Amino acid sequence: MNKKKMIRLTALVGVATATGVVVEANQAHAATTTTTETTNQTTNASVESTQAAVDAAQSTFDTAQTSVDSAQANVTSASNNVTSASAALSSAIANKEAATSENIASATSAVSSQAVVVASASQAVSEQAGVVSAAASVQASAQAEATSASASLSSSSANVASAASALSAAEAALTSDQSTAANNLSAAESAASSASAAVSSGQAAVDNAQAAVASAQAIVDAVAEVQSSDVINMSVAYITALKNYLANPSSANAAALQEVAKGADYVKELQQKFKSDASLDVVVDPSDPTVQEALSVYAVNLINHLRNQYGLTTAFGASANANVAAIDFVKKYYDDEDWNIFGTNGKGHNKNGLDAYANQLNTSIAEDAGSGLTTWVNGKATMATTTLHNLLYAVYSDIATMLFDDGGTNNWSHAQSIFEDGTILGTGGFNNVYLGVAFDKYGYAHYELYNATEGNHLGNNAYSLDVQTAAQNQLAALENSSANDLVAVTKARTQLASAETSYQTALATYKQKEEALKKAGDNLAAAQASLEAAQATLATAKAKLAELEETVANLTNADQLLAAAQAAYEQAVSNLTTATGNLGAAQVDLAKAESQLALAEDTAEQAKVRAAIAAQVDQQLNGSTANDRQSAGQDATSLKTNGRALTATVATASAAKQKQGANQGRLSQTGNDDQEASTMALVGLGMLGMATGLYGYKKRKLTK
Questions:
Q1: Does position 701 have pLDDT exceeding 50, yes or no?
Q2: What is the pLDDT of residues 616-644, one digit of tens each?
Q3: What is d(CA 100, CA 636) in angstroms, rounded to the nearest whole number?
Q4: Residue 464 DSSP class
Q5: What is the DSSP pairing of strand 433-439 with strand 422-424?
Q6: What is the CA 542 to chain-centroid distance, rounded?
């Protein structure tokens, strides 16, 4: 309800309530036995009862409003249905008018023609689907081939990289070996030049000696020539007797060995087997490195041949370091100390020197010595006129002599030094023997046997024992190495070229397969696009066919469709009429519910006002005497009389207002501001009069 209506109803309730309360007050105080509590309870119960009536009326009003809203929605829906049914009826009438035999025949023909179009479009879709499938298969195959080509290309690229790396390594090795070969060859040539210069210098006093001086290479060639024939062979009997003696040096074994050795006569026989060659008749320096190499190799080969006959598998070695150590030892402990090992007053081996030098090198040393250049069958030789022939013969003769009894305290000690394994003359630590050869200033030959270790380096710069010179061996090895490296380089270059060719082939194949894959992808995309276009054409044709079929059906069934449309239209009109009627009834119910709600609210307001006035009157009466109550009763009677007249006036105005509202259907609640203001003034006057009378009565009582 709006604000204006609520104000008007409140005013009416106020007047009615005031009148009722005055009556109840007169009645209550006319009887002295009635209490104020009874009056309050009655008015409060009236308030609760009228409020319940308001709640019930509000619920009825809400239900009626919902029914009106629902009925209005049904009317709207029914109206829309009528509009739709009217349009359908018009369409059915037009369809009926067009349903001539000619139009039906024409539509049927169009359907037949469109069916042919649909069939053709469907066939095109099927065919294009086959094209797409084939293109997809080609694309998949192309993808597989492209993947394989890519893998092959990667592998070929790796092969090229590997071959290039191998070529670089081979070229580096070739360059290194060629450089080393060049350096070593230069060193060898320099050494040969030095040797040649030294020989030339030594023979400066001899005018014709220059032509006889050979190079270091000639020396080695000459040694190689005699080495093959200058071997010492022992009989089986000698070997057996020597083994027996060395295992048990008894007198009997010594005599047996002496018997088979044949003594000095056999030595002479061996010495006569030495091969003399004119190429050996060149003057040389025994301390020259090339000569030293030739002598030590010559001696070691003779000894190793003997050890091999004896059944030993370990061989002696020869090295430049061992030769240098031998020359140094002989110079320091024989030449510098004027130590003559043989001669009239020969001192024998310099044992103190051997011990000292062994300690210096931290190794084991054994020494054999021979007559060297002093006494041979062929006569004496001096250091100044020593030839290569003399040196080689001295070595050969010394080693041959060592095979027999030396006599005196030495007995067979030289033979022991040649044939013992791991020990020499009872001294251990000889498991890697290297031999150095040196001649002292007296012309005697010294054969120093060293045990070589990693610490003393005596085995370093070892000589080859195959009667080839070091320069030849190095050059041959380097030439072989260079040749091998060159082969490796050539092979690497060939492999690189082959790998590059394979790579180019793989690259071309890869590009070809990639292009084929792209083409296959394009073909597949085009085929798929064509398929989609064919499918769209088919869909359009089917839609057109369905439309034409619907047209034929409509024309053929025009009568039935028209009848159905007519029935539907009539039903829609009927439904609208029913809905409109329902809406009117719902609106009437709503108007009734609204009137009942307004009346209930008026009654509730009157009850609330009565309760308030009753409470105030009771408060006044409860605090007065009997005379006061009598006076209050008279005042109440007067108030009652005045109240009835006021109530009659207000009731007349209220009835007129309600009639006016009923005439308006109470659907629109507006009201007149002037009338409502007049009513408010009247009600306010009545309320003010009652309140003033009661308050004045109470005040008078309080002033007495």
A1: no
A2: 877 877 765 555 555 555 554 554 454 44
A3: 98
A4: P
A5: unpaired
A6: 54
Burial label for 310, CB within 10 Å (0-12, 13-18, 19+), is middle
Output b/e per residue, 556-594; b: 16+ Cβ within 10 A.
eebeebbeebeebbeebeebbeebeebbeebbebbbebb
Asked if residue 502 lies in contact with residue 159, where contact means CB atoms within 8 angstroms, the answer is yes
Cβ atoms of residues 24 and 39 within 8 Å: yes
- Yes or no: say if 74 and 583 are a contact pair by the CB < 8 Å rule: yes
Decide if 340 contacts 346 (C-beta within 8 A). Answer: yes
Residue 199 pLDDT > 50: no
What separation, in Å, do the N-terminal and C-terminal C-alpha atoms of the chain show?
50
The pLDDT, as a whole number, for residue 181 is 59
pLDDT tens-digit series, residues 459-502 = 999 998 875 434 744 444 455 566 667 778 788 888 888 888 98
- Higher-confidence position of 403 and 698: 403
Cα–Cα nearest to 318, from 291, 294, 300, 292: 300
What residues contact residue 165 under an 8 Å CB cut-off, 6+ apart? none
> Phi and psi (nearest 5°) for 452?
-85, 135
The closest alpha carbon to 19, from 606, 603, 599, belongs to: 606
Burial category of 668 from C-beta neighbours within 10 Å (exposed 0-12, middle 13-18, buried 19 and up): exposed
Q: Which of 328, 341, 331 is nearest to 370 (CA)?
A: 341
Q: Is residue 65 classed exposed, middle or buried when 0-12, 13-18 and 19+ CB atoms within 10 A define those classes?
A: middle
According to DSSP, the residues that pair with 180 across neighbouring strands are none
Question: Residue 673: exposed, middle, or buried by beta-carbon count in 10 A (0-12, 13-18, 19+)?
Answer: exposed
CA 295 to CA 226: how far, in whole Å? 12
Report the 10 Å Cβ neighbour count for 311. 10
CA diameter of the chain: 197
Q: In what order do the strands lie in the sheet with 365-370?
A: 317-318, 433-439, 445-451, 365-370
d(CA 337, CA 353): 10
What would the DSSP string read from start to end of 599-662? HHHHHHHHHHHHHHHHHHHHHHHHTS-HHHHHHHHHHHHHHHHHHHHHHHHHHHHHHHHHHHHH
Q: At what angle do helices 251-261 and 263-272 cross, to 10 degrees?
A: 40
pLDDT exceeds 70 at position 266: no
DSSP 335: I
428 beta partners: 423
Joined together, the tokens standing for residue 584 give 């009117």
Q: What is the DSSP string of 66-134?
A: HHHHHHHHHHHHHHHHHHHHHHHHHHHHHHHHH--HHHHHHHHHHHHHHHHHHHHHHHHHHHHHHHHHH
Higher pLDDT, 85 or 3: 85
User: Is the pLDDT at 176 greater than 80, yes or no?
Assistant: no
